[in-house]
């Protein structure tokens, strides 16, 4: 903390300090005019600026300024491209400076626990490693411009149902491995200026007043140096929140909570030191922005072109039988579905951007030749109209290819509520079924923020997933359909065949104000792959108009010590006749049996663009953490000694190469010894096993068998007696050995030594 900030805080009155800890209104932080501390503005929009056009109203309802709407996180995550996310962040940082915005509220890095979460379109993935790496790149891009980010929502914000009162109940291992890892990666790598706490409780305690999350984990363990801000309206008890590590309350409360802070300091229930810390954290970031303000215009059209390019690199080709795509220029094509004219390109709620322009596919396709349109179904609701269906069928009949633009209307998924099913509107499924019966060359293009069920998946030869692709989605879609761009996106989430396959199905959205994360660490592909369950499309999956081969896996070590790094290299070759990009994915499999773990977990990914015939070497570096799971007994990450597989592939279900590495030097897990410690655990430890030998001899003599007899029966009896011994608690064995309670207590003390 620099001396200028400490000096300013020292000159503030108690009332001014308290005032700095809450907003002036919905979007602005308070300043202190007499000390030269200005007011600054924050604004919504991880994929664009939602800055209000006029003076900020208290509810944040005024129309926002025209801005560039980039693809939402559901789409950009499919790029599997860290550099692309950094480029997007760089563009948004430039826009923030131009529009005098000090902090952009994002990225949103919560895990996609269920396909039903209404806000999934804002979140990256079901995988915490992918989430953290992409979030880190985005944050670095924005903050290169001395503009802050506020990564959200910390933590376990995985549903909209009762989001302001529900308690997410989960064990420590699940919290750490799945729901905190994305935050941890980004905090350590990118150092966001701010973190936004979530609305919900975690194991009964509101995030906004949770010292375990906001201080012990976030600051003490991870080294976070920024300020923590509440989600808008998330504060339960302001003084308790400030003591727990919540620095800034948004929006302002009209002075009510400022007064509570002042009174708490005067009464001695809140220390001035804690208040000063909060003010210093906020002020450091305010002055960082103010000292580097640079109000320069930016090229909005260039940023629009970037939005188009990003969507081209994020869209996922899910199916392409008979190489139906790309379409040849001049092909007679029927565009069916109102999304062709009115694409759904972003989600609803606080991230809704007022895009300054919007490209639709129909207009964008005019340069490609004979393209005509039939409405088929509306874009904004589920409505069945016989005339529209008949016109769609007729258009399909006279075309060489029918492209159906389907997706979820705005009302189907939005911040504020969750979906109740994974289905597309019935009208859309009916049109797809009717069209595919008359036109074998049918392509389905999807506009959606989350997975959808596809009852027609086996009946159409091509499916292109656009997700919510931003204001350039129409142009990007046409470029992909006609081969100007080559699809390279990979699914950042599993598409299950049906909702009931999802691991959270029986525990989403919970009962009353409690939701139990009973599936534990088995979220997304971790569950589906463990169960060997048939899915519609697996995590990491995506096709290309080109083909790629991955080979020559090599590692710098066969055995990895506690502090060693493992370097993994593979060669990737474009074996097709088109330039394109492939995402090489590295998964780690634990073969030690030290814990129940998924078959494989993503621990590395790289995207590489290759010309036909070109080969490039991809490198990964893994540390001990890459092999570890969170061990609650030692309250730390633990990688057991033993064998692990390093697997390389192009999805969690498509593994091309695998090689074993062994870990050594694991920390020792202390054995808890008491009257009910299982004998099998004691005998597995060499030291306790040797000490117990004298006590075990009388016991084994009880089970001696006479010579001769049925060998097979004796073998069964041996196994039976061994099982009894191994599963018995220490107190039972002591009883067989004739030990008194006092002698048993003495034995326990000796074993502990």
Automatic annotation (TrEMBL):
SMART domains: Fn3_like. One of its GO terms (biological process) is carbohydrate metabolic process. Residues 582-652 form the Fibronectin type III-like domain. Keywords: Carbohydrate metabolism, Glycosidase, Hydrolase. One of its GO terms (molecular function) is beta-glucosidase activity. It comes from the Bacteria. Belongs to the glycosyl hydrolase 3 family. This is Glycoside hydrolase family 3 C-terminal domain-containing protein.
């Amino acid at each position: 903390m620099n001396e200028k900030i400490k000096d300013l805080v020292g000159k503030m009155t108690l009332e001014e300090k308290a005032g700095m800890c809450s907003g002036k209104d919905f979007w602005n932080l308070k300043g202190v005019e007499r000390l030269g501390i200005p007011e600054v503005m924050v604004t919504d929009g991880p994929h664009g600026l939602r800055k209000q056009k006029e003076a900020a109203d208290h509810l944040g309802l005024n129309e926002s300024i025209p801005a560039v709407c980039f693809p939402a996180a559901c789409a950009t995550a499919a790029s599997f491209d860290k550099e692309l996310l950094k480029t997007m962040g760089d563009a948004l940082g430039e826009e923030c400076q131009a529009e005098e915005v000090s902090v952009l509220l994002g990225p949103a890095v919560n895990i996609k626990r269920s396909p039903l979460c209404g806000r999934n379109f804002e979140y990256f993935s079901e995988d915490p490693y992918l989430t953290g790496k992409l979030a880190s790149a985005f944050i670095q891009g924005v903050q290169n411009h001395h503009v802050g980010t506020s990564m959200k929502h910390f933590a376990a914000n995985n549903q909209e149902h009762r989001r302001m009162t529900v308690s997410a109940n989960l064990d420590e291992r699940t919290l750490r491995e799945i729901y905190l890892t994305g935050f941890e990666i980004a905090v350590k790598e990118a150092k966001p200026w701010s973190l936004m706490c979530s609305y919900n409780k975690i194991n009964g305690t509101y995030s906004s007043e949770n010292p375990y999350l906001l201080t012990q984990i976030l600051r003490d363990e991870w080294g976070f140096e920024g300020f923590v801000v509440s989600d808008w309206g998330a504060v339960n008890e302001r003084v308790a929140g400030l003591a727990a590590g919540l620095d800034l309350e948004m929006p302002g409360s009209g002075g009510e909570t400022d007064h509570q802070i002042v009174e708490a300091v005067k009464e001695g229930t809140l220390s001035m030191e804690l208040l000063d810390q909060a003010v210093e954290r906020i002020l450091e970031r305010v002055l960082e922005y103010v000292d580097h303000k640079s109000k320069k215009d930016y090229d909005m059209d260039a940023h629009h072109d970037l939005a188009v390019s990003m969507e081209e690199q994020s869209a996922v080709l899910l199916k392409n039988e008979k190489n139906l795509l790309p379409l040849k220029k001049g092909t007679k094509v029927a565009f069916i579905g109102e999304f062709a004219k009115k694409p759904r390109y972003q989600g609803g709620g606080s991230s809704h951007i007022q895009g300054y322009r919007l490209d639709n596919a129909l207009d964008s396709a005019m340069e490609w030749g004979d393209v005509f349109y039939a409405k088929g179904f509306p874009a904004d609701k589920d409505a069945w109209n016989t005339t529209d269906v008949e016109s769609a069928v007729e258009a399909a009949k006279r075309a060489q290819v029918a492209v159906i633009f389907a997706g979820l209307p705005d009302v189907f998924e939005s911040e504020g509520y969750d979906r109740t099913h994974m289905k597309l509107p019935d009208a859309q499924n009916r049109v797809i079924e009717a069209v595919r019966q008359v036109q074998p060359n049918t392509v389905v293009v999807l506009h959606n923020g989350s997975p959808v069920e596809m009852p027609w998946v086996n009946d159409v030869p091509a499916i292109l997933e656009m997700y919510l692709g931003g204001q350039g989605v129409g142009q990007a879609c046409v470029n992909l359909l006609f081969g100007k761009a080559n699809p390279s996106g990979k699914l950042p989430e599993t598409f299950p065949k049906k909702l009931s396959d999802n691991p959270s199905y029986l525990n989403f959205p919970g009962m009353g104000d409690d939701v139990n994360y009973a599936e534990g660490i088995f979220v997304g592909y971790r569950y589906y792959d463990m169960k060997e369950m048939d899915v519609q499309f697996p995590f990491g999956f995506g096709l290309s108009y080109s083909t790629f081969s991955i080979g020559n896996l090599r590692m710098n070590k066969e055995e990895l010590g506690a502090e060693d790094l493992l370097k993994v290299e593979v060669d990737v070759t474009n074996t097709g006749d088109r330039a394109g990009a492939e995402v090489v994915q590295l998964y780690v499999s634990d073969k030690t049996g030290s814990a129940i773990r998924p078959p494989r977990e993503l621990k590395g990914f790289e995207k590489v663009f290759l010309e036909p015939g070109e080969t490039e070497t991809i490198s990964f570096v893994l540390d001990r953490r890459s092999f570890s799971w969170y061990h609650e007994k030692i309250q730390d990450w633990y990688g057991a000694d033993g064998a692990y597989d390093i697997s390389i592939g192009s999805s969690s279900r498509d593994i091309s190469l695998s090689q074993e590495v062994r870990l050594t030097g694991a920390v020792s897990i202390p054995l808890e010894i008491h009257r009910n410690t299982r004998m099998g655990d004691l005998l597995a430890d060499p030291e306790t096993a040797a000490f117990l030998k004298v006590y075990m001899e009388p016991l084994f003599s009880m089970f001696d068998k006479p010579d001769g007899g049925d060998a097979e029966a004796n073998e069964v009896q041996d196994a039976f007696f061994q099982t009894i011994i191994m599963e018995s608690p220490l107190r039972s064995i002591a009883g067989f050995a004739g030990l008194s309670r006092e002698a048993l207590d003495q034995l326990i003390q000796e074993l502990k030594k």
